[in-house]
Amino acid sequence: DRITRRTVNGDPAEQWQYDEHGWLTTISHTSDGHRVSVHYGYDDKGRLTGERQTVENPETGEMLWEHETGHAYSEQGLATRQEPDGLPPVEWLTYGSGYLAGMKLGGTPLVEYTRDRLHRETVRSFGSMAGSNAAYELTSTYTLTGQLQSRHLNLPQLDRDYDWNDNGQLIRISGPQESREYRYSDTGRLTGVHTTAANLDIDIPYATDPAGNRLPDPELHPDSTLTAWPDNRIAEDAHYVYRHDEYGRLAEKTDLIPEGVIRMHDERTHHYHYDSQHRLVFYTRIQHGEPQVESRYLYDPLGRRTGKRVWRRERDLTGWMSLSRKPEETWYGWDGDRLTTVQTQQTRIQTVYQPGSFTPLLRIETENGEQAKARHRSLAEVLQEDTGVTLPAELAVMLGRLERELRAGAVSAESEAWLAQCGLTVEQMESQMEAEYIPERRLHLYHCDHRGLPQALISPEGETAWCGEYDEWGNQLNEENPHHLYQPYRLPGQQYDEESGLYYNRHRYYDPLQGRYITQDPIGLKGGINLYTYPLAPIRYTDPLGLERVISVYGPPAPDRAGAETPLVLTDMTGGVTIYYDPETGDSMTFDSSNRIDRRSQRGAGDPYTGEVVGCETNESGISAAYGTTKIYTTDTRARWLHGGGSSLRDPYAPRQGWKPTMGCTRAQNEDVDELCKKVTSWMYSHPGERIRYERFKTR
Prior knowledge:
By secondary structure, the protein is mainly beta. Among the domains are: about 380-430, no CATH class; about 570-695, L,D-transpeptidase catalytic domain-like, CATH 2.40.440. Helix content is about 10%, strand content about 40%. It is built from 6 helices and 47 strands. The chain has an 18-stranded antiparallel sheet. Strand 34 (about 495) and strand 35 (about 505) form a beta hairpin. The longest helix has 17 residues, at about 670-685. It is globular, with a radius of gyration of 29 Å. The two termini are about 55 Å apart.
């Protein structure tokens, strides 16, 4: 019953292959005419030990790109060893149940961690003498409630202090050169940033409609009457005019010519084209009717971008301006959902991430000339060429794992058992391996902010080789790059594309100028009610996969509605709308409601708030005892509940009242509220111990 093939409109799409255990070994498809495949290897416990990505020439079958990553595990099952393509193994040193204590590259200690009694990181050291006299030492402190309080270094220009309000919102980040203060709406959205420095005092407001779409700045556009964007599709802003296609995807973006400015017909128009999976596959920028740049993108069957080709306008030998005949090619290698390798025509840049996160830790660069010196036939290639037999993909993966273990001098028990079954020995396989050249590499540590956005690259000697400054939405404001290092990473999971200005964000492309995505969320409403938005509190939440938000800094939960994990009941007190949304099924229902608050209600009963829906406690007679009235569900202790609404239908807990269960302080049609309560009851019955979030808010 396993899926082996999928077609789209009658054309072949993905193909799957499995081994005798039923484990996936290969998945492949065609992208822009290229055969792109992903191969997997496993140990005898079914754990992933290797992943190999390949791209083949559509005409000759020549291998254009190949990337492989290996994994090894401790006796406790922890992934303590990573084997990047072409690099020495990365070893993670842990203690207890897996708390990180240090990191080695090829047996050389590079990073050490010190932790407190709660196992929180307090000191991180890096450099040629990691530890007592490290070239880089980061010290972190926390508040009594567990929030990040400060991050100080032996490089004072990167020191940061953090202040929080009682709602768990980050309200200030202070450094030696500038301070930023943050303002929020009642629903937790970032509404403004005030930045002060020696020669700078600037306030930037962020106005949005109820769905979170950017509105014109009221100070710059006082005459604007726009209050909402239909279908969440922004038609224009201060810089561009936008056009979306029938699928809600951004199709065109054209320079906005302000009123009163003479049109010179030199505005630029950006064109975006997509495949059947809504992935951006072709981009071009037109000016004066001529293409200035074109780019094409390749993806693997999992939707990860594996290649990019860019043609730029240049002057040829005859003096004519036209697009270059030969494109700039860039290839990408992945470890799961994390981009670990960027291969350009000049160099290879590899990234080691902090375990279990999208925060980059190490940057390792190897020039192509050094790679060529280090290039040798793999063990699988030696055996194939000597025997004249093409090895199955899963066997090549197993041989790749064995070769990495042999070069590290640590052959696993699984590999020894496998060799014994084949009638081979470790010594025989070692004799087949070609000599290895150690290339010259440039190594830097990523110093990132609390979210994981790189702020500096630090050499093992403690020198700052690169530093960058960004706004809250990932726009680069300033950069110092004396060594001309290529640093494309932005917010977690994002990579900057110079040709388009967009950030590739795994499943989608992000426009930092708008602070939103250019296509709708592939997971639908599970990622939030607005299918385009990036988290509306970007200094607290991130979206590394381009799907849904994740918290990026510790602290009490903040009232931000995007990306709920449990069902969510929302009441918009201004618009008179109540919404129920279940992220598991994607089901939602919307109905009109009003908020006529009884004058006898407790103070604050009509204010915005956030709570959780729980079943009421009842007395011996089965009648709810909460706040002196009968109801089925409550949301807190202040008379905010799903309660009777004055209809003729009876509350099963209070037949004498004759009240119909409805939203706290709302009125709605009987059948709508009845259906809402049925959904709430059904979900809570099937998810014992879990609670539904209830939020009531005002949009103006």
